[in-house]
Design goal:
Layout: H1 21-31, H2 35-48, H3 53-61, H4 66-86, H5 103-118, H6 122-135
Helix pairs in contact: 1-2, 2-3, 3-4, 3-5, 4-5, 5-6
């Protein structure tokens, strides 16, 4: 029988780099709009900053139908995996909601979970739910947003 060694520090934690201030300002302005103008302004921000994770997540929130939302969340999720790897994540460890820069990725993953369930992709929805809890054991967040 092999010995298990536990560390006091736990799994590694990754915090994504901050989004460009201009992208955050464009998204904030977009979120103040209503209806189709809101969705169009979010899409314009994502087109200008295609690596903007919260932009993709918010575009998913504003999708005109479940498939459009699913697609935006999926792009945000995959772009987020790329950004996580660029920030040192190696496929395991925490990516917690408490760190503001991580929220776009986690929103995209949660949106992907919801929309996968809506379109009947139960196995994908289950994987996303498990992944969210592995990334942040306190999921779902108690903070607004």
């Amino acid at each position: 029988m092999s010995e298990v060694t536990l560390t006091t520090s736990g799994p590694p934690e990754t915090v994504l780099d901050h989004e460009p201030a201009e992208a955050l300002a464009a998204l904030a302005g977009a979120l103040e709009q209503e209806g189709a103008a809101r969705r169009d302004a979010i899409a314009a921000a994502v087109a200008r900053w295609p690596r903007f994770l919260d932009g993709w997540a918010r575009l998913g929130d504003e999708g005109r139908d479940v498939i459009e939302s699913y697609a935006a969340y999926r792009v945000g999720y995959h772009r987020g995996l790329d950004r996580l790897r660029a920030n040192g994540w190696r496929g395991s460890g925490y990516v917690r909601w408490v760190h503001e820069p991580n929220r776009g990725f986690l929103r995209a993953l949660a949106g992907l979970q919801r929309t996968a369930a809506e379109i009947g992709e139960g196995d994908e929805a289950d994987r996303c739910a498990l992944f969210l809890r592995q990334l942040d054991p306190s999921w779902p967040p108690t903070e607004p947003g």
